[in-house]
Design brief:
Elements: E1 2-5, E2 10-13, H1 16-25, E3 51-56, E4 62-66, E5 80-84, H2 86-94, H3 115-123, E6 128-130, H4 131-135, H5 140-153, E7 155-159, H6 167-173, E8 186-189, E9 205-208, E10 220-228, E11 235-239, H7 240-250, H8 252-260, E12 262-268, E13 275-281, E14 283-285, E15 292-295, H9 318-334, E16 339-342, E17 349-353, E18 357-361, E19 372-379, H10 381-396, E20 404-406, E21 412-414, H11 421-435
Parallel strand pairs: 1-3, 6-7
Antiparallel strand pairs: 1-2, 3-4, 4-5, 7-17, 8-19, 9-18, 10-17, 10-19, 11-16, 11-18, 12-13, 14-15, 20-21
Helix pairs in contact: 7-8, 7-9, 7-11, 8-9
Bound molecules: fe (ii) ion.
Residues 199, 208, 210, 359 line the site of fe (ii) ion.
Length: 441
């Protein structure tokens, strides 16, 4: 289809099928003026809408009169026109026609870390932000820098947090809506009798990720330290994606097992009110691109294997292979050189990416002097992704990373600032090779 300007000169060629598709989303004539939502159904439209005329007006908006279209909500059933403002057309040019949408959001290249690397970042003031800078709208650059560091490393510290119970909510809401779970919108991590969760005891808590049995799995976890004067109780963190790449490089066969063998997780409360189940491979990859999306490791909430098919439990069977691979993976995660150990101080709040960063805690002493109290909350994957995407849009008006651009001639090209998953994979793998001493950094 050729779109003409007022003078009749063709200004742009459009693929009719994409116009139909986009019109379905941006049918502005019938959109409710304020909400921007559609007030008709796709089934009201003809299968093959035809354009009677189209022109680009002086203010840059596109006006189309449809030939054969009627809709049930249209007052005039014989003639229907659509007008798209210039800003909408620009948005399409940068986004919809090129396939760039929030659902295609490509994350930033991650900074993978072991203990030495993460501590070096901290010593350079990276991954640390004051509460004032995080919460104040007067210093957006500081907040955006910290959010970027969170996207890349999966672990940041907010410091100088007031000693108030509701501060963790305020910190989380700077990113977006908090994720409510059956633990509540916020929850307390402190030792209590007859605890329903091992986190609420004083015992050693091995590396794990939270709520692997829950959908959606919370993406970010925030823990604000209100008191930590007990002996012990140091927090432990390990980068699961770094360990996954190390498995891929050093033990490719075992790595493969961890990417396809599904491990069941569950939670059943004693009163029967909460019963959740889900299963995930230990290392989750994008099947098409092989990009490592994250890890799933939560021994306390692992459910019994219930797959009684031949070869599961025999020596050399599937379960035996997974156990072998999982043991190597865990040893990598928990080795001292890969684990960051920190005793949180009152006034500190950690924010970490639960899809990738495993956390745990050393045993702490109770009953005598001292107290330990952390207040936590979660942010969902969707809210975190939307916040990262919004930050990119605010920075330069459009997402920095383009994916694939299909030209009007049908040829696919890659945008100059593309950062697709193949490139991410190569770069992230190189980081881990350097850490393993297999490559110069
Ligand atoms: Fe936890």
């Amino acid at each position: 289809m050729s779109v003409s300007s007022g003078s009749g000169v063709p200004v742009q060629s459009l693929d009719p099928s994409s116009v139909v598709d986009d019109r379905d989303y941006h049918y502005n004539v019938s959109d409710e003026e304020h909400s921007g939502q559609k007030n008709f159904s796709t089934v009201d439209l003809p299968v093959t809408p035809q354009v009677r005329s189209a022109k680009l007006t002086d203010d840059g908006s596109l006006s189309v009169i449809w030939k054969n279209e009627t809709t049930t909500t249209s007052e005039d059933q014989s003639i229907h026109s659509s007008v798209w403002p210039a800003a909408t057309l620009d948005y399409w040019a940068d986004n919809i026609l090129t396939g760039e949408r929030l659902s295609n959001f490509t994350p930033a290249k991650r900074t993978l870390w072991n203990r030495a690397k993460y501590n070096a970042l901290l010593s350079h003031g990276i991954c640390r932000i004051t509460h004032a800078d995080w919460t104040s709208s007067s210093n957006p650059a500081a907040f955006e820098r910290a959010l970027d560091q969170l996207s890349k490393t999966g672990l940041i510290f907010v410091t100088d947090v007031p000693n108030k119970e509701d501060e963790v909510e305020r910190i989380g809401q700077r990113i977006g809506m908090l994720q409510h779970t059956f633990y509540g919108t916020t929850w307390d991590v402190k030792s209590k009798p007859r605890a329903e969760n091992v986190a609420y005891t004083s015992q050693f808590l091995g590396l794990h990720q939270d709520l692997m049995y829950h959908e959606p799995i919370p993406r970010l976890q925030l823990l604000h330290c209100l008191a930590n004067s007990c002996e012990g109780g140091e927090s432990l963190f390990s980068d699961g994606v770094r360990a996954a790449y190390a498995m891929q490089i050093e033990h490719p066969e075992l790595y493969n097992v961890l990417t396809w063998f599904s491990v069941p997780f569950h939670y059943r409360s004693k009163d029967g009110q909460h019963h959740y189940e889900a299963q995930w491979p230990t290392i989750e990859i994008d099947r098409k691109t092989k990009y490592i999306k994250g890890t799933h490791w939560a021994p306390p909430f692992q459910a019994p294997f219930r797959m009684p098919f031949p070869g599961l439990v025999e020596k050399g069977g599937f379960l035996a292979k997974w156990k072998e691979a999982a043991a190597v993976f865990h040893a990598m995660l928990a080795s001292p050189e890969n684990m960051v150990k920190v005793k949180l101080k009152p006034g500190e709040c950690i924010i970490f990416d639960n899809s990738r960063v495993l956390h745990g805690r050393n045993e702490f002493k109770t009953g005598g002097e001292g107290d330990r109290w952390l207040k936590g909350t979660y942010v969902s994957p969707q809210v975190f992704t939307a916040r990262q995407y919004r930050m990119q849009m605010e920075e330069d008006g459009r997402p920095k990373r383009r994916i694939r651009l299909r030209g009007m001639d049908g040829k696919v090209t890659i945008g100059g600032d593309q950062n697709d998953t193949t490139r991410l994979l190569k770069s992230e793998r190189s980081q881990v090779k350097a850490m393993l001493g297999l490559l110069e950094d």
